[in-house]
Structure formats: structure tokens, C-alpha cells
Amino acid sequence: MTFLGLMIPLLPLLGFLVNGLLGKYLPKGSAGWIGSLSVLASFVCVLLIFKDLQAEQAISIDVFNWIALGDFSISFGLWIDALTMIMLMVVTGVGFLIHLYSIGYMHGDEGFTRFFTYLNLFIFFMLLLVMGSNYLMMFIGWEGVGLCSYLLIGFWYKNEPFNDAAQKAFVMNRIGDLGFLLGMFFILFHFGTLDIQTVEQLAPGLASNGGLIMIITLLLFIGATGKSAQLPLYTWLPDAMAGPTPVSALIHAATMVTAGIYMIVRSNVLFALAPDTLTIILWVGVITSLFAAIIGLKQNDIKKVLAYSTVSQLGLMFVALGLGAFSSGIFHLVTHAFFKALLFLGAGSVIHALHGEQDIRKMGGLKKLIPITYITFILASLAISGFPLLSGFFSKDEILAHAFEQNKIVWIVVAVSSFLTAIYMFRLVFLTFFNNFRGSDETRSHIHESPWTMTFPLVVLCILAVLGGLIGLPAIFHVSHWLNTYLASVTEPSAALIHHGDGISHGLEIGLMCFAGLAAIVAIYLMYRKYVMQKAIPESEESQQGFIKAIANKFYVDEFFENAIVNPVFKLSEWFGTFFDKKIIDQIVNRTATTITSGGQALRLSQGGNTGTYVLAMVIGIVVLFIIRLLI
Amino acid sequence: MEHTTQLVPLNWYLLLSTFLFCLGVMGVLIRRNAIIILMCIELMLNSVNMLLVAFSSYSGNSDGQVFVFFIMVVAAAEVAVGLALLVSIYRNLGSTDIDLLNKLKW
Amino acid sequence: MNQLIFISLSTLTIVSALFMVFSRKPMYSVLSLIFCFFTVAGHYILLNAQFLAITHVIVYAGAIMVLFLFVVMLLNLNTVADQIKTMGFRVAAMIGAGMLFLVLLASLKSTTLGTFSFPEDNGMGMVEHVGMRLFTDYLLPFEISSILFLSAMIGAVLLAKKEKR
What we know:
heterotrimer; A: mainly alpha; 73% helix; B: mainly alpha; Helix Hairpins; 3 helices; 74% helix; 0% strand; elongated
């Protein structure tokens, strides 16, 4: 079991090394298969462990003692328990499908080998992140996935805006990472260890020091907002769509952006001890969820819509965490990984078919031309919208039920944002697949269904997106909630610390579910009427007015950051460059030099070459020496 | 004889040789003629010699006198070389004024 | 008696040394230095260092100073007038030397001399004794100093030789 556990991260690393070092000696196109198979092998390892590992069990693998300083030591250790298992299956399973998809999608790209090298490296770091037994290991993975995200967003580095997007993602993440790092220092200082399990055990003992736990959790949460694109650090995620679409699916929908949620669930005891932090998380999640959903309403780029949808859904997960419903957060994370990866891959398939066109106003009528993509895409859209009995319906409903139970205002806002989800998703679906094609005839003649490497992942993910809800059926179906039971060993310690309500009655829960399902259906119908029956097409940017215009421009958040932070920094550095550097630093240097030169010119006169003067100086020197000798 | 004569205190020799030494230093400083300067150096050497002999006698140890002997040897050698240099300088500059020897710079 | 001799000898030494330093003409300087050396030889005799006194007269007065005399006469330096430096430099030199003297005096004052026995005439300064020391304990330095002499001689000849044009 230990061996299998080690193989999980090592196989993608091997794939990375082979592709990265030997890539150019291998036959063209083999990089894709090497990358995919290494992740598949890793997935098989995960399944083998999953088969044997009981939910309560955990495997601890100490690879070696990494840092040893006196009493303090950090081991290079891996830790596999129920939560890790879930994450591992998502990362390697979805990761493999996306690798497979990329073989078709990236076919013919000049950076084909490089792409799979980065992708494998990303999987390696992501596995390290979820398997790390201490915060430092987690941080390595955390930074590693950030790096890979940067590399992959800027994958087409010859395009200047793409590079800017990559840098933006990197800088935004760095702000969050600083929070994580500081949180780590606090933990190390007060707990004396970074080992997550030890910290979780020690934490209740320090609970009396409420402020400390709150600071730690807040700092960790800042890290999570950066990585998981929450307010106010979310703006990098929509820009990150500059990367190839499989990257958006893998990194910016299914895995990396959920790292923040994973991290909070992993340290759930700490967070449960800081109710104020949970409240902050709750409201950040609520606001982000609504905010991003509103922006998503008016985006015309197929990937941007999905990006804002991701931000919104991540906000929903944070709502779950903020309510103390950690396993619900993970549930939504899993189902979201399925349907959002599917949506991105479907969007990628559309873009592939249209040779790079991303504007939904120039699409339309694609359902007959690319049927597999159409069917899978629409099922995923139904799932994310919360259409009854699909995976998103159950995971969302669970969060909504928790919200209803604890805070009605939260429930209303979340319900609104999930209603909006249905609206923007079906606006996208109807504009893309229905009616007639709005692009040029020449493009239309080239539209074709994607190769099997692309459609196979779509179909598999589609099945998962439809049936994914089965891992967390609510109590009204009279079957046990499998995910809750499975994660019990992880979430139990914190469950005791958080006061949950008595739960809502079955009748009320059925009512809520019916309400949510009805809302989704109504939203879909409204969109159908507007975009299919009335054949409305989003107007161009110039004709937009007032609030709509503000939404289409993403509430001017980027412009705000630009003016509030970026420009002042540029101004400041310009001032430093032109004034401070030239007038002060350079002057100090130059004056020093000229002083020494002129001093040398003056002193040079004393070297008159006159022997007599030298002798006199010598005598004076002797006298001085004598005086010193005498006085001391 | 010891009873009839008064002792010369050692301090007096110290004083005398110190004075002679300083006189030699002053000579070196104020004179410009290289020959006089050489002679002043001889004077300084002699003042030291005298001190050595005085200490040697008063402590009943003849090492000091042997030292003086060697100093004389060195002085003689020094004077021989020094004067040869002087003659050479005079031949080139037509003077023994050390203020003219100001090539020793930079 | 001894003190009297010391004082008179010292007076002569100092006066002749002063004359040597301040005399305008090199010839006078040389002659007064010769006289000064004779008085120093007197001091040596007073200190029971008879052999050294004789050597001193022979080496300094006889050899070194004659050499000086030769050079002065050979170069005809007596005609060169006013070879004392500028006023400012002279004052500086005076002050420097005076300071040195004062400092040396001060340091002498702060030293405590050991108790010394009376300088008896125990034959320590006689030629046998000094010769014994030189040829036994100090044989090696003695031989080396003769080599020094040889090299000084060769050097002097080389330096003073007229350069070939």
C-alpha cells in the first residue's frame, strides 16, 4: 500500500521527466500518450488503494525526514485518508480524461510536447498538494500548481495579452500565498509543528486563545481566496481563460481552484474553532457567488461565461464551508469538477470545431453539426443549473438546505445566484447550439465533430455529471449519504465543535428541492423563449446602457484595480526611476566619487617629492608614536 | 680611587645622549646639504653608541661594547656607500642640495 | 672629580655638535664634528671602555671624517652658501626636534632605572676582553660584518666610478 501511495505522485513526475527531458527525441505525438498513460497509471493506483482502504483508515508515508532542527522536524511525508482519496480520484480521474482530450485538442500545436510536460508537472504538484502530510508539503504543491497555472495560461507566449494574463494570475495568487505563508508561520510558532494531524489534535487545547486561531484561519483563508478565486482576488480567473481550453478545464475548473476548499476542509478543526472566520468565509462566498453570477449574465465569450460560473460555484462551496458543512462543500467540489470540466471540454470542442471562434454571437445552430458535444454540453448545463435528479441538483440542494436551516438571508441570496446560474448557462446553450449558424459560410463548411480522443472524455464525464449525485443522496431517498459517511473520519472532530441545527424536516426538504428544481426549469424556459423563440442576439457593447453596461464590463473591477493599485505603483516606480534614482542614489554615488577624486588631487600635493618634508613627517610621526606610547 | 671620586649618575649619560640625538635630528631637518645631513646621522649614531657603552659599563656586561663595535662597522660601511652616492649625485646635478632631489614623487 | 670631567667633556661635546649643525660652511662642520668625536672618545675612557675609545678615534676621526673631508674638498662645497632651509620649515623642524627631545625626556623620567654597580676598572673594556668576546661568542656576526664591509667597498667603488657615456 505504501508503494502504491508513493507511485501516485511519482508516475506523473516520471511522465513529466520523460516528456521534458527526452521529449524531442521521442516520435512526434507520443508525448500525449506518455502523459495520459502516466496519469492513468496513477489513477489505477488510487483505485487499488481505494479498494483496500477503509474509510476510517489512513496511510501515512514518511518518505524521509526533510528538515530536522533540534526538536523541530518536518518530514517529507504523504498522508492518505478519506478526504485525500476523494481528491485523488478527482484529480487523477478527471485529470486523465482531460489529458486524453488534450491529445485531440492540441493536435498539431507546435508546443504539443511542452504542453504535456506542463500538464504532468501540474498533476504531480496537485497530488503533492492533496497528499502532503504537513502544511509545508501542501505549500509546495500549492506553489507548484500556481507555477504550472502560470506556465499554461501563458502557454501561447507569443501572444502578449496571454502573457499579461499569466502574470496577473501569478501576482494575484502571490497575494493569497503570502496569507498562507503567514498562516503557516503562525502555526509553526504556536503549535511547534506543521504536521496537519498533530495541529488538528492540538488545536482544541488552544481554543481558549480564540484570537490566535482566528488569525491563523483568516490568513489561511486569504490564501484560499487567492487560489480559489474569491472576492477580491478573483479577477485572475476570467483572464486565465487565455490558456488552452483543456487547461481551463483541468486547472481553472476541476482541480487547482478547488485547492482552497480542500485546504479548509483539511484543517476543518482549526476553522471550526474560529466561528468568526467561518462567518467571514460564508459572506465572502455568498457575495462572490452572486457577484460572479451577475457578471456571467452578460459575457459573450463562451469561456468567460464558464469562468464566471466557476467563480460563482466556488463561492457556493465557500458558503458550504462557512456554514460548517464541510462534506457538502466537498460534495459540490466533486460534482462541480465533473460538470464544469465537461462544460469546458465541450466549449473546447465547439471552439475546436469553429477553428478558434469564442464569441457566442457568432455561433448558433451547432446541435446538428456536432451532436455528441451538443448532448453532453446540454446535460452538463442541466446539471450545473440544478435540474432535478442530476448531480448538481443534489449537491446544490444540500448547500441550500444547510443555508435555509441556519440563515434565511444566505439562503435567499444563494437561491438567487443559482437561479442566475441556470439563466446564464442556458443563454449560452441556446445561443451556441440552437437556431441558425451566425458565422461565415466558409467556417460553417469546416465544422466537424471532434475525434474520439475528445468525444470519449466528454461521454465519460457526461455520465459522471449525470450520476455523480448518487454519492450524496439526501435522506429523503432513504439511503445513507455515502459521501458524508465516507468523510466522517475527517469531519467528525469539527462536527462536535459546530452547533448544527436539528436538521430540517423531510417535508420541508422536499419542498425546498421542488422549489429549486422549479426555479431551474423556469429559468430554462425563460431563456428558451428569449433566445430560441424570439431569436434574440446579445446586442453589441456600444448600445448597452447603465447597469447592463456595468455588468458587461465586469463591474469595472479590473479598471478599479488598474487605477487603485497598478497605476499608482507604476507612477511610484516612475518617480523612483526619474527622481529618486537619478537625483538621490546617483548623486550619492557621483558625489562620493568626485569627493574622493578631488581629495586625491589635494593630497597629491603633499607628495612633493621633497626628501626633507618626508623626514619631517617621519619625525612628527615618531613623536606622536612616543606620545601615544607614553600616555597609554 | 672609588672613594675619592664622585660617581657620575647614569641619568646624566641618558640626558646627554638624548640631547645629542635630538640635535642630530634637527640637523637632518634643517640642513639642505646632503653631506651635513650624513654627518648629523653620524652624530645620532654616536649618541646611541655612547648610551650603549654607558649601560654596558654600569651593568658590568661587555655585550653593549661589542654592539657598539658592530655599529661602528655598519656606520663606516654606510658612510662609504653614502658618500659614493653623493659624489654620483653631485656629478649629475652639480649640487648636493637635497631639495633638488625631488624626483621621489608619484 | 669624575663628575667634573664629565661636565666639562659634555659641554665641549654639545658645543661642538651645535657648531656642526648650525655652521654655514661644510668645512667647519666637518672639523667640529671631528672634535666632537674626540670628546665622545673621552667619554668612553671615562666609562672604562678603553678599546672602544681607541677604535672610535681610529674609525670615526681617522677614517670616516677624513673621508668626509676629502669629499667636501673634492666637490669644493665650501663655496656653496646658505644651505639652510626656509624660515617656516626651519621653525617646524625646530619644533619637531624639540618635541622629540621633550617626549624622550618625559619617557626617561617615567622609566625606573635598575640599581647599577659602580663602574669598576675590571679590565672589561680592555682589548683582551673585548677581543675574547668578539672571537668567541660573536664570531659569526664578526665574519659577516667583514663581508658587509667588502660589499660596501665594492658598492662605493661602483657608485663613484665615472659612468661611461
